[in-house]
Design brief:
alpha/beta; binds uridine-5'-diphosphate; binds manganese (II) ion
């Protein structure tokens, strides 16, 4: 039987231990659900730049073959952990899955939360123009993406998703700089402009991403890691 094909994209840098746990766990989980899938670990080069989660997701999406029906954007430190939940099967609407995550006390951290794990059909990802490339370091790019999906006239449904969290140091978003309040304020302003319509999301995202591929590593028959230099 022909089923819809899933592309799972994971933004990544400098979390080797998580990578070695995430990939086998996720492959096993998706195989058990009978899902036809591939995983792209979208790695940012260790180039002294701020981590740019949105751009990495756009890069991974762009480099994938054009055979996928839906895409799931997945944090590397969230592992599906309860068999009755975390259903990755296709839906024609967008689905937020990370509804009960250990690091948030198994509760939603806020009503607009669309982070952690979110899936949408490929045509919706394209209509939303993917993620913004402008956010730096921690925060708000996932909420911005939720608004892009809504502006692309797709509603975001929820599925129950119970996830365990892998531990890590707080805020390793830059190899040697500390995240500062100025940067958080700038991310907040970007989000405000997105919500008010002042920011034209059609000019910022998949449509204008610039990058170079530095390396491709085959991790398994289902998973590869691509290292990007983001411009
Ligand atoms: N991430 C990463 N390396 C970093 C920072 C972030 O790989 O240095 C990726 C990883 O997929 C992670 C996601 O971005 O799960 C979200 O970052 P983080 O876990 O730091 O956010 P928080 O725990 O604050 O939600
Ligand atoms: Mn985390």
């Amino acid at each position: 039987m022909d089923s819809e094909k899933l592309l799972l994209v994971v933004p990544y840098r400098d979390r080797e231990e998580h990578l070695s746990l995430f990939v086998p766990h996720m492959e096993k989980w998706l195989k058990a659900q009978g899902i036809d899938f591939n995983i792209i670990i979208s790695e940012q080069s260790k180039d002294g730049e701020w981590f740019n989660k949105g751009s990495l997701i756009n890069c991974g999406f762009k480099e994938a073959d054009k055979v996928y029906d839906y895409v799931c954007i997945h944090d590397i430190d969230m592992l599906p952990c309860c068999k009755k939940t975390c259903d990755y099967s296709y839906s024609a609407s967008s689905i937020h899955l990370a509804s009960r995550v250990q690091q948030f006390g198994y509760k939603m951290p806020g009503k607009n939360y669309t982070g952690g794990v979110i899936m949408c059909p490929v045509d919706i990802y394209i209509k939303a123009n993917g993620f913004s490339n402008l956010y730096r370091g921690w925060g708000k790019e996932d909420i911005d993406f939720g608004f892009r999906i809504r502006k692309a006239k797709s509603k975001i449904s929820k599925r129950d998703g119970k996830y365990s969290s892998l531990e890590h140091q707080k805020q390793k978003w830059h190899p040697d700089k500390k995240f500062d309040d100025k940067m958080l304020q700038s991310n907040k302003q970007l989000l405000k402009n997105m919500i008010s319509g002042k920011h034209d999301f059609r000019k910022d995202g998949l449509s204008n991403i610039k990058y170079k591929i530095l390396n491709t590593e085959i991790i398994s028959s289902k998973t590869k890691k691509i290292t990007f230099d983001i411009r």
